[in-house]
Design brief:
Blueprint: E1 3-7, E2 10-13, E3 18-25, E4 31-37, E5 44-50, E6 55-57, E7 65-70, E8 75-80, E9 89-97, E10 104-107, E11 111-116
Parallel strand pairs: 2-11
Antiparallel strand pairs: 1-3, 3-8, 4-5, 4-9, 5-6, 7-8, 9-10, 9-11
């Protein structure tokens, strides 16, 4: 069975920092990423990273957030700096695995990030 365990969310003031972690077990993730869903908004990709270290970010977090991973631990991190109230959302970790003809995505349970103004 595949499990993703997230940690690191919480309440922080605007301008502060948080670091999210997501550890995957039961599979090897080719791509690991972070998504978020704010109230009354659709889920959006925040950042992702391949096993080779290639990264992608949504424009709104570029320069503030950094995604990284430890392949030996099958763990992905999201360092969030200069947080803004609009970053408030539930953040979900995603693990993509499998060959190109049978891709599977697994999701974490979500962790709440709240940024106060």
């Amino acid at each position: 069975q595949v499990h993703l365990v997230e940690s690191g969310g919480g309440l922080v003031q605007a301008g502060g920092s948080l670091r999210l972690s997501c550890a995957a077990s039961g599979t090897i993730c080719s791509i690991m990423g972070w998504y978020r869903r704010a109230p009354a908004k659709q889920r959006e990709l925040v950042a992702d990273i391949t096993s080779g270290g290639s990264t992608a970010y949504v424009d709104s977090v570029k320069g503030r957030f950094t995604v990284s991973r430890d392949n030996t631990k099958n763990t992905v991190y999201l360092q969030m700096n200069s947080l803004k109230p609009e970053d408030t959302a539930v953040y979900y970790c995603k693990c993509r695995t499998g060959p190109t003809w049978a891709i599977l995505d697994y999701w974490g349970q979500g962790t709440q990030v709240t940024v106060s103004s």
